[in-house]
Amino acid sequence: MTDTKEIVGWVRNENEIHIQFKPQNTDYDLGLINFGRHATPPKYIYGPLVRDFAVVHIITRGRGCVIIDDVRYVLQPDQCFAFFPGQIHYYESDAHIPWEYYYIGFNGWKTTDVLHRAGFSENVIARSLNCTEQVVSAISDLCETSNDPFQPFLQHGYMYQALHYLIHDAETSAGSLPVERVADGKEKINYARVAAGILNHSYAESITLNSLACNLGISEGYLNVCFQQENGKTVYQYLLERRINVAKESLRVTNKSIKRVALEVGYFDALYFARLFRRHVGCTPSQYRQLSAGAADRERSDIHGK
């Protein structure tokens, strides 16, 4: 898969490099979704959440822990961890020696096979690594393309190079790492937070309470109660609000057609989208775009008049 993709996330500073491409369908063997490096602050938390693609992390400095289901892995340099698509996961850097890691995310119909060959399984997601330098070198070269991220052939070449080293290393690695069970308490999976994360990330997809509950492995009723207690609104209300806010941003800053905006937030029927938008915003999408443009013009005029 080497088609140029739409970039939906870009960060480059002293502590972090991150490029995120918009996931496409999975009708290809492997496709690059994201990559980067992150020197995390103390007690940096990511998750709990579910992603629809795989991610492999290579630890180069510091310490941290990963929790998946009720299993905790305490990890350090020359170790790596991976998440399969659809797995609920959470990770946190150490309070005193926070970790730095490089990572690469991908999807496609070969994803599960590649992760298995690289020494991971759905039940064992962390292992020791004998080729940290080689894998990090490949991902570092990949990160260098962040200055000009539209280089699909080069980027996929580095992705395959990193995965090659991981697979080759799995034949000689010490294997999986000791784990401990997570006791009842704050580190148990918060399903409401996971569900909100899915809605925030996958708002453009066809999502229902039933599909969300099935994805998390819990009942609709339990999810609905947890979600309302955590977020003060139903799953439907949260998803609608997320879609409307994304649509408003798109209408303000782009010239995309109303139909295109509707599609990008999960509505195939532009007329239905327009009715929903008007009901919750008080004006049609076209009127909102005009009002936003007028407000921006007045703001620029005020600035220049000072």
Order of helices and strands: EEEEEEEEEEHEHHEHHHHHHH
Would you give the CATH topology of the largest domain?
Jelly Rolls
Low-confidence stretches: none
Helix content: 40-55%
Beta fraction? 15-25%
**Separation of the first and last Cα atoms:** 52 Å
> Can you count the beta strands?
12
State the name of the first-level CATH class of the largest domain: Mainly Beta
The structural class is alpha+beta
Strand arrangement within the widest β-sheet reads: 1-2-3-10-5-8-11
CATH architecture of the largest domain: Sandwich
Can you tell me the overall shape?
globular
Helix segment count? 10
Oligomer: single chain
Evaluate the radius of gyration. Answer: 21 Å
Q: How many domains, as an integer?
A: 2
- CATH homologous group name of the largest domain: Regulatory protein AraC
Major β-sheet annotation: 7 strands, antiparallel
- Mean residue pLDDT: 85
Commentary on this structure:
The chain is α+β, with helices and mostly antiparallel strands and 306 residues long. It folds into 2 domains: 7-181, Regulatory protein AraC (Jelly Rolls); 191-298, Arc Repressor Mutant, subunit A. Helices cover 42% and strands 23% of the residues. It has 10 helices and 12 strands. The strands form 2 sheets. It has a 7-stranded antiparallel beta sheet with strand order 1-2-3-10-5-8-11, covered by helices on one side. The chain has a 5-stranded antiparallel beta sheet with strand order 4-9-6-7-12. A hairpin with a 2-residue loop joins strand 6 (64-68) and strand 7 (71-75). Helix 2 packs antiparallel against helix 3. The chain is globular, with a radius of gyration of 21 Å. The chain starts with 6 loop residues before the first strand and ends with a helix. The model has no long low-confidence stretch (mean pLDDT 85).
